[in-house]
Amino acid sequence: MKTKKRILIPILFALFLFSDLPAKTIKGTVFLDLNKNLKLDKGEPGIPNVLVSNQVDVVQTDEKGRYKLKVYEECVFFITKPSGYETPIDENNLSKFYYIHRPTGSPQFVYETVEPTGKLPKKLNFPLFKTEEPDTFKVVIMGDPQPRNDEQIDYLRDDIVAELADTDAQFAVALGDIMFDNLSLFDRYKRVMRKIAVPCYNVAGNHDRNYDAIDDIHSLETFISHFGPPYYSFNYGKVHFIILDDVEHFIQDGEAKYRGKLGKKQLTWLQNDLQFVDPGDLVVIMMHIPLYWLEDEKEQKLNIQNGDRLLEILQEKKYLLALAGHTHMIQHNYIDDGLGFMGENPIHNIVCATACGAWWRGPKDERGIPVSPMQDGAPNGYHIFEFKGNRFSERFKPAHRDDNFQMRIFSPGGKIMSDELTGRKIIVNVFDGGEKSEVLYKIDDFPERKMKQTPMKDPYMDDLLEMTINENSKIKPRLTHHIWTAPIEDELSVGVHKLLVVTKDQFGQVFKATKIFEIE
Known about the structure:
Blueprint: H1 14-17, E1 24-32, E2 51-53, E3 58-60, E4 66-71, E5 75-80, E6 85-86, E7 98-101, E8 126-130, E9 136-142, H2 150-164, E10 171-174, H3 186-193, E11 200-202, H4 221-227, E12 232-236, E13 239-243, E14 247-252, E15 255-260, H5 264-274, E16 282-286, H6 307-314, E17 319-324, E18 331-335, E19 347-351, E20 381-388, E21 391-398, E22 407-411, E23 414-416, E24 425-430, E25 438-443, E26 449-450, E27 452-453, H7 459-467, E28 483-487, E29 495-504, E30 510-519
Parallel strand pairs: 1-8, 9-10, 10-11, 13-16, 16-17, 17-19, 23-30
Antiparallel strand pairs: 1-4, 2-3, 2-5, 5-7, 6-8, 9-20, 12-13, 14-15, 18-19, 20-21, 22-24, 24-28, 25-26, 25-29, 27-28, 29-30
Helix pairs in contact: 2-3, 5-6
């Protein structure tokens, strides 16, 4: 993190953006909590150069760990965890790096919100603990857990959490839609997720809103009461992680609606935050709705309002990664000048796998859990990211499957009549594939050949639809960009044949799959 001698002065136009201009300030100290009692005791030193924010302004602690911030009528005060330190965590492995300021409490909604916090303390101090943080580390990233009831929390527990109980990752992130509208389940979700045994950060999604809020300002009060601020940052190693809230709540014709949008207040905070980040650090942006999503090859535009302003703020950073969920599909793409990003390197934009697949739907397996692939035919699951300095690699992990299950060969399979070979294709869904993937195939002793990336719906999903009896459990397939095809050679003889498919991703990881088929 870059050290500055003077406190950051927020950009001037911020003064005109917010009507609740503060009339007072709060002071405090970020300190090394040697005895871990969460109190600033005599002899415990302050920690310099730690970022502290009120959701708009960002200041840096002085050489004694002291800071001073403006107080807004309602806000959340928080620190940006510096590398080499850890924050206190609660009994649910949730990081406690913030203080919610709601003097009179939140508005009353269907679900519980923030109780009145009363007057601010004379000093607002933040404890940190010293720790060893390696430059190489792993992080679990999952989109949309999204249980709608207790039964689906059972699925999340048994399908995802159970296999992460012994993870060697340093922390986990759920990329929004923590719930499917039923916010009363937050408490049980937290109790289940704590068994991952590492801190878990949670992004706000469109299904995590208070639908009875009259505007966006208070639409996440229940979420905030459980997880803290909807946007903030923290550091680990040489990586600066940023969580954003890109869901705007609004009422139209008496109904609660949403759209992808970044508010001006949040963008002001982000610009202030990034001024303290070293140019050589990797910046990872995590949000719910993807900044960019390729549905139609002809449609090249950003997916959220004010996305162009976000790109403008990010363009001074050299190493950038954007992660999101929301679509219930996996997609890799690269945001460059074609989308208005003028930075030195394209932003690698990954729309991540969802823990719930397609909303915990589909026929049930031997455990009684829906198979629930995503709409692109990929299994439900999560990603394991490995960070080395300011570089990263990632690997998709399908839930309840072997690590090497990275593709599905749909065709050919079973028996094919020799007079039906003409026009038949090899069809392979490379779950985590993208434009930088290379996919090759080999039949028996024939030469190895390249396959063609072919945007289409996965035909496996049609078969799954036929197997799904319950209409409410059916999954609607969507066009995906990670399917590869190739023609089947007409010269294949009658008999049994072996198909080998090999894929190599942009990180150099190689995966293989084999299919045996017959020609009669």
